[in-house]
Amino acid sequence: MLKKDLPIYMIPTEYIKTNAIPLNSNGKKDIHKILIVAEKNRKPIFKKNNNCKQLTQLQEQLLAIWREVLKIENIDINDNFFEIGGNSIQAIQITNQMTEKIGCFMDIGKLFEYPTISKIERYILEET
């Protein structure tokens, strides 16, 4: 539905059902309460691939970086960075952390070309 009308980065990765939007004492949206409600009711739209393959050390390192930056625990190596909510600021953070923690420089533009951990791993192995 939305995929044909909107760019991929504008398509929600999840919806959160609530009876009412929490308001603060000034009648404005209470962001802190909304985040609490969101965390309790979070249900990802995309189904995860329950692939039980053993991950490589590089995949584990990349997963740790993505989990830290995106603040999402349930990430698969085939998840698209932008489809699971990644944005340009987080892309910069991920590429910086890859340089710091793994010692692998990757231009931010490459994340658009290789938007999954499995594709990034393949890119890194081919470049080294």
UniProtKB/TrEMBL annotation:
GO terms for cellular component: cytoplasm. This is Polyketide synthase PksN. Keywords: Acyltransferase, Antibiotic biosynthesis, Phosphopantetheine, Phosphoprotein, Transferase. The gene is pksN. It comes from the Bacteria. Pfam families: PP-binding (PF00550). Its cofactor is pantetheine 4'-phosphate. One of its GO terms (biological process) is antibiotic biosynthetic process. It is an enzyme of class 2 (transferase). Its EC number is 2.3.1.-. One of its GO terms (molecular function) is acyltransferase activity. InterPro entries: ACP-like_sf (IPR036736), AMP-bd_C_sf (IPR045851), PKS_PP-bd (IPR020806), PP-bd_ACP (IPR009081), Ppantetheine_attach_site (IPR006162). Residues 53-128 form the Carrier domain.
